[in-house]
């Protein structure tokens, strides 16, 4: 079994990053995730939101690895997430369903406010990879670790992309609200002027 860990700081508040995590896919940086279905979503007694999603992905592994494993590139995974708005933590746990008896990939991502800057968000990411009952297991685990490390970089780019989209939408919404407010003020002014110029009966 091989372990992989990583940390990354997003220079954005936790609330923004948490929203972006839900809108991360699809994205142009990592087209490997081709589909997401929400299987269940509920709020527990502590006010935490728990979600279970099915992920449809394409593993970008060498063709000989797919031949050895006996599968094509399309694979399925399970993601369970927990959002705690009080402690400001978002935890996502993902595991592969395809070929799990031979190759298990268990990944955990935790987003929380950065301990030294409340306006930034710290991502702690870890994964365990275990190849069972196959030749060259150590080598295969190394290949998967390299793939995870590469995808982690793409994932962070995708988060920045999603954050940028959220900010653009908020700016557009603010402009629209301002335009509506100004239009309403002008119409109100016209109405008041009309009332002032009309003679009383």
UniProtKB/TrEMBL annotation:
Instruction: Provide the PRELI/MSF1 domain boundaries.
Output: 1-171
User: GO CC annotations?
Assistant: mitochondrial intermembrane space
Pfam families with a match to the protein in the record: PRELI
Tell me the InterPro entries matching this sequence. PRELI/MSF1_dom, Slowmo/Ups
Highest taxon above the source species: Eukaryota
Which protein are we looking at? SLMO2
